[in-house]
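Quick check before the chapter quiz. The format below is the same one you will see on the exam, so make sure you can read both the input and the output lines.
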Amino acid sequence: MPPLLTTSITAVKTAMPAFIGYTEKNGDLSLVSKPTLISSLMEYEAMFGHSRSSNIYLQLHDDNSLNGEIVVSQPTFHLHYALQLYFANGGNFCYIISAGTFQSAGASPDARLVQMQQAVAAAGEVDEITLFVFPDAPLLIIHSLTNSTNVNDLNEKTNLYYKLFKDSLALCEQLRDRFAILDVWQAFNSMPSDTAKYIMAFRESIGTDHLSYGAAYYPWLRTTITSYINEKEGDALNIAGGTGVPKRLVLRKENSSPNFTNSLFHINRSLYDEVQKAISKNTVVLPPSAAVAGIYTTVDNAQGVWKAPANIPLKLVKEQMVFISDAEQQQMNIDVTNGKSINAIRTFPGKGVLVWGARTLAGNDNDWRYVSVRRVFIMVEESIKKGTEPFVFQPNDANTWAKVKLLSENFLSRQWRAGALPGATPRQAFYVTCGLGQTMTIDDITEGRLIIEIGLAVVRPAEFVIIRIGHWMKRD
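Here is the expected output.
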């Protein structure tokens, strides 16, 4: 019985991120570098655990009263926090690829790079993945660079970080079915004057290849998410000074515990309350890519992949860590020499914190300048490729060519009616060609190649809205 041929082409999913990072649990190694589909934070926690506990540092007077401010450390591992941002901003299904546990994370940035590269390679085996997100890539930075002002030094210390990104961009172009959402790295205590330094370091380090398959975002975000603290973990609480303070003091023991001599909640309730206030005030700072991945998902589901994922307020975000001016954004948008556009995260009165850019890294490329354009082409190419797979081993003749052409035209007509392609008629929006002397030679047919050529006009975002206002002079 001949194979059943498809009667229509269905659009593939466009927003299926793969989050690559470190997890608390790994299922006895069975989940390391194994792409695992989840649909909620609860599902993630059941399989991979929680965040790593942050640390609390405080100094006491001799009478055990608080001496100075309580310091809550920022998290080292970001994946669990990043997923909170992703789901809050519209994300639903996604893949988790664990590079290892917190304990098994490589002892050096070089070792961690190898672990993350293995996770990226594993992601390449999953056809459904369409986006890459790297919340734990900052673990590849050699040191905090808190006081670094030398751009050459900055490049040297971040080269492993950007090597991971370059590898992912290369894989995106090789597979032609996915897109990378990247973060411009910045030190935690960045000053506004540092912006140009980080932008320059990114542009010099990201290379010149595969740029249309990724987009970069800056700056990092202060979220409304509080640091996770394991109240029962003795290493989380670090107290200096005081009188008679027990060693290995924990924040709070279970009420069913046989004794509470090392439970801060039970031996000094007022100090425990002060610690809780400090935790609630000290919210987590994260790279923006996870929130942006949620925005991609929201826009794709509500309007379509052809809508630019920008001008959208971010949820669970208090502020961006560096405020970007119009002049700074202009420089981020356009790098006259090499392109490498960077999308700004900005705050606008009455609107909140918005994604305020929709460019790929190929900022000087007229064809691939915009995120939505590249992702529409990825969607169309992948959809038609999958939709025409049933024609493999069919006779490579005019009858097959006509069927393939008709299927492709019907699919593109539906995209045109949905608003993905401009033009008053389908003829103005696309063309499909397939046949001997058009897309194939006799040699192609002899070698078993069926080649379809498709041309698209894709909707581009109205990036700049220009309003001209003139006064009409009163005439008698």
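If your answer matched, good. The two ends are 87 Å apart (CA to CA).
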